[in-house]
Structure to design on (481 residues):
């Protein structure tokens, strides 16, 4: 089938300017993408904190209802992110090859796949919510609200998954500001809707309690997804969908599914690893559990810039791999790893110096938690740079289509290194609980070394998600035109 005329494309009027990922300063492009992505991730944390803030005003049972729902919600988000990562990698490579017909086709098929999956999961989840909570041994006074909360989340899955795809494919073509603006708007709206729906308003709107928080989330995610889909149909931001594009292409959907499956499994394995580590930590008592909670909350904030750099480098590398510029893709990987290592090392030094202040911010009135938490943060902090390296290079592997490599390293990091080391050092040496804390830097450093070694082997350079013939044909055709 004849490709679209690149020079007259209604989507991209100035290809040299719009698709600068394959030319120009790598450092400038990396920061241009990474900074908005970091801001988006901060906004998403704010989104979660908003629900926790308002629900916390109801009481402990309400907070528990939302808390027990978190592992299930996290698993669903993991599934969505996996397929979105696959769509991003394909979109980035086709964008780099200037094959915009296939960019649109991949986006449409990713949407179809994710919406079908979300509807199936939503129906199963709505029916199975009581049984899931029963398996978790949730008390009856908590489970009633948790069922309502979960069912609202399951009902909104198509919109949650749909916006995740929109956000990911926009990253794939290098457009990160538009999703940032949408998330800023919906986060603000969620903050305003939460108290109204939770507590009611002036007798005109009833108080829905915990389910009100879920309703606010459902509403704002629906708005975000509809705006995103509208923009894709308008074709103003690099991607131009038509309703005719939404006819299923089963071979491509199958490809996206199996590309996304390892990424989904990777996130699921991480969540399971956190759960198993929690069991080990709780065996040392309440104070240790509190310290672990503070340390992991801090870690979630620390990895935000590393995640932003990782996603940005993945997009840039994907463009260059699609364009056949493997040296530039390699240079992007090296620069992102160096920047991530340097930045997170500085953050680590800051955390080391001010560890006590950071711990007391979370739990200000417990001297023993502050003392032990300071030790945990200082043991972990100086290895943050290695975590940044591992995350950056994993993004490069995904960009090239090597989805199994990050999955393998996640398994090694959590199940071969971190948990076994934590168990052995804490239970079978004199270190005790310190053995758990030391398992974090040891696993970060060893995983980073393994990741760098695999990267330097260069095997990732020999895999593309699109055919060499497609790259050559499109580039030649665009050159002639």
């Amino acid at each position: 089938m004849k490709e679209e005329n690149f020079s007259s494309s209604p989507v991209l009027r100035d290809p040299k300017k719009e698709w600068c990922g394959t030319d120009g300063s790598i450092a400038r492009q990396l920061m241009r993408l990474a900074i908005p992505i970091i801001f988006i991730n901060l906004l998403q944390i704010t989104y979660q904190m908003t629900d926790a803030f308002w629900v916390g005003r109801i009481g402990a049972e309400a907070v528990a209802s939302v808390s027990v729902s978190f592992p299930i919600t996290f698993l669903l988000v993991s599934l969505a992110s996996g397929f979105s990562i696959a769509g991003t990698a394909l979109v980035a490579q086709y964008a780099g090859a200037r094959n915009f017909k296939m960019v649109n086709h991949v986006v449409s098929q990713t949407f179809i796949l994710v919406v079908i999956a979300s509807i199936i999961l939503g129906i199963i989840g709505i029916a199975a919510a009581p049984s899931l909570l029963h398996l978790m041994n949730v008390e009856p006074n908590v489970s009633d609200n948790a069922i309502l909360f979960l069912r609202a989340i399951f009902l909104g899955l198509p919109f949650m998954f749909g916006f995740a795809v929109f956000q990911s494919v926009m990253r794939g073509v290098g457009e990160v500001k538009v999703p940032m603006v949408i998330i800023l708007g919906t986060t603000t709206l969620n903050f305003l809707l939460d108290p109204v729906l939770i507590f009611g308003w002036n007798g005109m709107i009833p108080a829905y309690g915990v389910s009100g928080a879920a309703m606010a989330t459902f509403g704002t995610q629906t708005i975000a997804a509809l705006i995103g889909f509208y923009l894709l149909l308008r074709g103003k931001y690099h991607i131009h969908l038509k309703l005719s594009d939404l006819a299923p292409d089963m071979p491509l959907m199958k490809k996206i599914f199996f590309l996304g499956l390892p990424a989904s499994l990777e996130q699921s394995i991480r969540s399971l690893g956190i759960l198993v580590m929690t069991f080990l930590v709780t065996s040392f008592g309440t104070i240790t559990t509190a310290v672990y909670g503070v340390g992991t909350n801090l870690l979630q904030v620390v990895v935000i810039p590393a995640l932003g750099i990782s996603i940005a480098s993945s997009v840039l590398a994907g463009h260059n791999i699609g364009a056949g510029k493997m040296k530039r893709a390699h240079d992007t990987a090296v620069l992102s790893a160096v920047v991530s290592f340097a930045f997170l090392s500085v953050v680590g030094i800051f955390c080391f110096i001010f560890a006590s202040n950071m711990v007391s911010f979370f739990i200000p009135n417990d001297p023993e938690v502050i003392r032990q938490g300071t030790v945990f943060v200082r043991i972990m902090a100086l290895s943050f740079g290695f975590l940044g390296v591992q995350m950056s290079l994993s993004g490069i592997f995904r960009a090239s289509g090597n989805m199994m490599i990050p999955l393998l390293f996640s398994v090694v990091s959590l199940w071969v290194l971190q948990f076994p080391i934590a168990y052995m050092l804490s239970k079978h040496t004199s270190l005790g609980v310190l053995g758990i804390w030391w398992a974090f830097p040891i696993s970060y450093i060893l995983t980073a070394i393994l990741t760098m070694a695999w990267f330097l082997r260069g095997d990732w350079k020999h895999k593309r998600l699109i055919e060499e013939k497609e790259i050559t044909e499109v580039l030649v055709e665009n050159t002639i035109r």
